[in-house]
Amino acid sequence: MKPNIHPQVYDVTVVCTCGNEIKTRSTKQDIRTTLCSACHPFFTNEQKFVDTGGQIAKFKKRYGNKS
Fold it and tell me: What is the pTM of this model?
């Protein structure tokens, strides 16, 4: 390998908002995420709706229930 052309690689602990920590390697020293395999609905088979700011209610008000 040529010297001084590759980025520095660090041992990093990725921290999720659910509290899960994953150890990996990255070129960034600090990684925080909102979803991981411990809390993502695809992996947990639990369906979660996060209605921030009433987005679902706003959509239903605008378009109504046309079913």
Answer: 0.55
